[in-house]
């Protein structure tokens, strides 16, 4: 048998072992060639009467991350070509049959008459887990690195190779829907308790355990192919079913606001599929999958959250001519909330950390934050006491700057005041070595201005973390005018070491993310000043696809911080650089009412010690005008909240702050939650079309003012029929 991606052997007991080990790849992925090999293996097992069954395992450190999504992108391109050349009907027939090829292959395995078992170690996600689900028996390792799951929803898709149908027949319907909607990675014991796998064993025993099941006469018939099979939750049209489906539909609408076609397709595929025998159910799933695969939401999310993010994580923006920068010890100056978080993620990555503050007591308090974070993980069973002890041993709390002498990278996270930061820069540079890189975690202050306090600006760079550091996956790296290539390489190497996603931006006030976030919050403030009910503003933000409304977001970052930024901007850039309406609102809240945000339980919301937060009733008294809710165009509110952010992103691109649309899109989703179904702030414009977006801006400009005026670079792009990605590709060519 001629196989490229598998090794195949049969033992003396007649049990075959197919070891998936793709040459030249660090991880197995599903490709057309892998499908061809798997088809040959099934045929060989069936044809040989001496073979009792087959175990499928991996020859790599992990099982597989699933399908190669570039394969799915290519399918879309082929559909477009056939549609142009041969017509829509023939193109759609081709697309449907090709998109269900994996489904038919897995069903062939499942019904071939010989038992198959999966022996899984490490990551087994998406199409790879669907392969395991099609096997008649599943054994997973008890290793902490082992995870199974169906995360397709996170890139705008859903499990289209039988996942929706098999999971819904293994678990209670409500649990199955929750798993499919969340797309979470599941640990071994939890997977067994959920009924997704049959056994958990030590890594070295999983293949043997799978073989033992086969030798003991393991059944080659899946549960749902048994004549008397009943779904765990019973029939859809039953009292139990009616307790599940109406709430499920309501939860779907509440959580997605109908922005995610894939989530709706999951609901429909499971609902319809559970009423049919498996083969018809799989066909229903395939039809929905083909439809979703052609949706703009899937195209946008796959491009940004899979392809672009993968490229950035692998160093797409790293200077090619700079070798690896040694990073063994990291210094963090400032042990407050941000500094403590930076120290934790650094130590968690295995780096030695020196955490410095004005007093040893303050530094120890910052170190205690790491203790709390790991303790919380221990309570949840995700870490051991030894892990906490090892991590804490890597953090040295100090009040002496001299302890930073051996650091390869020092990150300051002190108060957002140029004078304070200048003092820290001088103290740090007095003790660190000539090759050490200095980074500022400023969120708004221009890096080039801060670098004036440095004696070696080529080694000075911005590394902007988002709060809370341990949870937020984006890091914004800011190049000052004098920042050198080695400093950039060091910053990117550091971000990769702590397993976060970097974007590189050029220096400007607010950089990229905070400019867009600022525009979102500003629009919420101006809506409130116009007389729009606060609840309506917040609901518009969430229904537009944002994680929280603009007023809630302002509370999280601090209403007082927003006022400080406005005042600092006004002092440094002049009165025309700030919106007077926003300044009046923030001044009234902070200085007039003492409402600082979530930090003091009083902001746009009230935060009682018991119970949920509620909008502060006093907001109505700050509105000079109060609009009738029925007279407000709710769709326009949603448009304003997205357009203002996308427009600011377009300005940063036109100004050269962001130079790569991949970074703008990935940064907007990971950094501030810009409606993920759009693919990001610039994809929002690209998929709408620049001409249509400019027209929308003109309409909003006429109604609401010059802040919606599109920049000349965007107008020119619209006139040419161009896109941000097309422009970037042209410049790179």
UniProtKB/TrEMBL annotation:
Pathway: Lipid metabolism; fatty acid beta-oxidation. Keywords: Fatty acid metabolism, Lipid degradation, Lipid metabolism, Lyase, Multifunctional enzyme, NAD, Oxidoreductase. PROSITE patterns: 3HCDH. Pfam families: 3HCDH (PF00725), 3HCDH_N (PF02737), ECH_1 (PF00378). Residues 329-507 form the 3-hydroxyacyl-CoA dehydrogenase NAD binding domain. Residues 510-607 form the 3-hydroxyacyl-CoA dehydrogenase C-terminal domain. Its EC number is 4.2.1.17. InterPro entries: 3-OHacyl-CoA_DH_CS, 3-OHacyl-CoA_DH_NAD-bd, 3HC_DH_C, 6-PGluconate_DH-like_C_sf, ClpP/crotonase-like_dom_sf, Enoyl-CoA_hydra/iso, FA_oxidation_alpha_subunit, NAD(P)-bd_dom_sf. It catalyses: a (3S)-3-hydroxyacyl-CoA + NAD(+) = a 3-oxoacyl-CoA + NADH + H(+). GO terms for biological process: fatty acid beta-oxidation. CDD domains: crotonase-like. One of its GO terms (molecular function) is long-chain (3S)-3-hydroxyacyl-CoA dehydrogenase (NAD+) activity. PANTHER family: TRIFUNCTIONAL ENZYME SUBUNIT ALPHA (PTHR43612), TRIFUNCTIONAL ENZYME SUBUNIT ALPHA, MITOCHONDRIAL (PTHR43612:SF3). In the N-terminal section; belongs to the enoyl-CoA hydratase/isomerase family. This is enoyl-CoA hydratase. It comes from Methylobacterium variabile.
């Amino acid at each position: 048998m001629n196989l490229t991606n598998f090794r195949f052997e049969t033992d003396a007991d007649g049990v075959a072992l197919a070891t998936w080990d793709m040459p030249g790849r660090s991880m197995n992925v599903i490709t057309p060639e892998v499908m061809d090999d798997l088809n040959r293996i099934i045929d060989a097992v069936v044809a040989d009467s001496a073979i009792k069954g087959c175990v499928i395992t991996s020859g790599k450190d992990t099982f597989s991350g699933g399908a190669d999504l570039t394969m799915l992108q290519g399918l879309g391109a082929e559909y477009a070509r056939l549609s142009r050349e041969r017509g829509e009907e023939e193109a759609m027939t081709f697309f449907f049959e090709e998109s269900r090829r994996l489904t038919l292959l897995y069903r062939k395995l499942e019904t071939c008459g010989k038992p198959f078992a999966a022996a899984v170690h490490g990551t087994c996600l998406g199409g790879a887990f669907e392969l395991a689900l099609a096997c008649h028996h599943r054994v997973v390792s008890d290793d902490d690195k082992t995870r199974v799951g169906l995360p397709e929803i996170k890139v705008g898709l859903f499990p289209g190779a039988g996942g929706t149908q098999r999971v819904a027949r293994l678990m209670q319907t409500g649990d199955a829907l929750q798993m499919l909607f969340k797309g979470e990675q599941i640990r071994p014991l939890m997977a067994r308790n959920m009924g997704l796998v049959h056994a958990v064993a030590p890594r070295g025993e999983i293949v043997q355990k799978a073989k033992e099941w086969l030798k003991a006469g393991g059944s080659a018939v899946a549960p749902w192919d048994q004549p008397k099979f009943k779904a765990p939750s019973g029939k859809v049209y039953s009292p139990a079913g009616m307790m599940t489906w109406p709430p499920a539909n309501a939860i779907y609408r509440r959580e997605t606001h109908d922005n995610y076609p894939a989530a709706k397709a999951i609901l429909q595929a499971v609902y319809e599929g559970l009423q049919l025998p498996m083969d018809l159910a799989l066909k229903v799933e395939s039809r929905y999958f083909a439809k979703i695969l052609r949706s703009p939401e899937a195209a946008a999310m796959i491009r940004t959250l899979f392809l672009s993010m993968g490229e950035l994580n692998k160093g797409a923006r790293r200077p090619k001519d700079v070798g690896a920068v040694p990073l063994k010890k990291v210094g963090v100056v400032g042990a407050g909330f941000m500094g403590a978080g930076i120290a934790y993620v650094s130590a968690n990555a295995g780096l030695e950390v020196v955490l410095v503050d004005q007093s040893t007591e303050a530094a120890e308090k910052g170190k205690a934050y790491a203790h709390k974070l790991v303790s919380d993980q221990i309570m949840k069973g995700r870490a051991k006491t030894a892990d906490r002890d090892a991590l804490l041993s890597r953090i040295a709390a100090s009040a002496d700057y001299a302890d930073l002498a051996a650091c390869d990278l020092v990150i300051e996270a002190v108060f957002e005041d140029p004078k304070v930061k200048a003092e820290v820069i001088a103290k740090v540079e007095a003790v660190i070595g000539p090759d050490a890189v200095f980074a500022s975690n400023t969120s708004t202050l221009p890096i080039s201005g801060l670098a004036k306090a440095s004696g070696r600006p080529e080694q000075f760079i911005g590394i902007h973390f988002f709060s809370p550091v341990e949870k937020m996956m984006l890091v914004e790296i800011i190049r000052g005018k004098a920042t050198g290539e080695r400093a950039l390489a060091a910053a990117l190497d550091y971000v990769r070491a702590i397993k976060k996603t970097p974007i590189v931006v050029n220096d400007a006030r607010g950089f990229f993310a905070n400019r867009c976030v600022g525009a979102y919050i500003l629009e919420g403030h101006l809506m409130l000043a116009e007389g729009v009910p606060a609840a309506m503003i917040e609901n518009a933000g969430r229904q537009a696809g944002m994680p929280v409304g603009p007023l809630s977001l302002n509370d999280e970052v601090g209403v007082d911080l927003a006022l400080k930024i406005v005042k600092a901007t006004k002092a440094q850039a002049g009165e025309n650089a700030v919106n007077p309406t926003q300044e009046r609102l923030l001044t009234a809240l902070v200085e007039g009412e003492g409402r600082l945000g979530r930090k003091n339980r009083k902001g746009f919301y009230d935060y009682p010690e018991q119970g949920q937060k509620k909008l502060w009733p006093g907001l109505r008294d700050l509105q000079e005008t109060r609009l009738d809710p029925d007279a407000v165009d709710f769709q326009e509110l949603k448009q304003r909240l997205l357009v203002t952010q996308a427009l600011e992103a377009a300005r940063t691109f036109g100004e050269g702050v962001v130079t790569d649309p991949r970074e703008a899109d990935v940064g907007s989703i990971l950094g501030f939650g810009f409606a993920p179904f759009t693919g990001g702030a610039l994809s929002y414009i690209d998929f709408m079309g620049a001409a249509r977006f400019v027209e929308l801006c003109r309409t909003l400009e006429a109604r609401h003012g010059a802040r919606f005026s599109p920049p000349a670079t965007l107008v020119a792009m619209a006139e040419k029929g161009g896109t941000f990605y097309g422009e970037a590709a042209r410049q790179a060519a």
